[in-house]
Amino acid sequence: MFKISFAHILSLVLASIFYFYEVILRVSPSVMTEQLMEHFQISATALGFLSTSYYISYSILQIPGGMIIDRFGPRRVITLSTLICVIGTLIFCSQDNFYLAMLGRALIGVGSACAFISCLRIATDNFKPHYFPLIVGLANMMGTLGATFSSKPLAIIVNQHGWQNACIYLALAGLVLMPAIWIFVKDNKKENSATSFLEAFKNIAQNKQIWLLGIIAGFLFLPVTAFAELWGVPYIMKVYGIDNQEASKATVMIFIGAAIGSPIFPYIAHTIKSYKKALFLCAGLVATLFTLIAFAYKFSYLQTFFILFLTGFVIGAEILVFTIARNITADKYNATAMGFINALISFAGLVFQPILGKILDISWSGEIAENGVRIYSLDNYQYAILVLVAMFIISFIMLFFLKDNYSKTA
Question: Is residue 189 part of a domain?
Answer without folding.
Answer: no
